[in-house]
Amino acid sequence: MRIMLVSLGSLAAAGVLAFVAGGFYDITAIKQHPAWVFHAIGIGRDTLVALQADADEVPEDFAPVADARNVALYRKHCTQCHGAPGVAPEEFALGMMPVPSNLVAAGRERPPEEIYWFIRYGLKMSGMPAWSMRMSEADMWRITALVEAFPTLSPEAYAELVEAGPQQLDSMTSVAEAGPFTPFGNPERGRKAMQVHACPQCHMIEGIVGRSDLHVGPPLDDAGARKYIAGVVPNTPENMIRWIMHPQEVDPLSAMPDLGVSEGIARDMAAYLYAIAGTGHASVGAAPVDPR
């Protein structure tokens, strides 16, 4: 029986491979998935999200809230893909496949813990990013509160909040302010942080899945063991953290951009780079570290 199941599984896998490799499945963003694929993906996604989101505890004082502060935060991070009441997504988002969700429907159909789950963890192969480690817990719940309020928010009311909101952007809670904290860089959090800050876009990094032939920035497997960082400053934990946070201040000629990494997250990233290089700097100081 076991041999039969293995054989059937192997045949099914070979059939799928031949179907895809033979060019029979259109992977362009012009043509939709067949309806059965679309619905199968949706059922699997919703089942897993419901199970996993159940572990996220909704704050006791949570309530749907549409105010200027929440709208300003949403406009900065979400409108580009999802639009808003009376506001279209940016032009690039119109050609995405799958099309980003209309969040009025999400606010009507999904409980707050599921909205929060999507914001925090993102969704593979959908274009939805994970905001964990890049947005504070408080701000993720603010966006959740706004999405839950969308079904009863008119385009006129949204426009009024937009007019009242721009000055609120400077008052957002940053990741660096969003404790609790632990005193040392955490290598495992650093690995995850490098993923959600798109470091594999330019670098090959041990422990992070990516292209094995990428040649944009240098491989980072031995970055913690090099004598100099970027060839310009001695390799110390303090300089590594500074380089991650503000690379062009360290080397104005560097092509590496400032990704807005907070000090605590940079400390985690540095701890990971030293850990995979086998150096003795896995704990890189006593500055606060954001556990998210």
From TrEMBL:
SUPFAM superfamilies documented for this protein: Cytochrome c
InterPro entries: Cyt_c-like_dom (IPR009056), Cyt_c-like_dom_sf (IPR036909)
Residues of the Cytochrome c domain: 53-151, 185-277
Keyword field: Heme, Iron, Metal-binding
Signal sequence range: none
Pfam families for the chain: Cytochrome_CBB3 (PF13442)
Protein name: Cytochrome c, mono-and diheme variants
Organism: Citreimonas salinaria
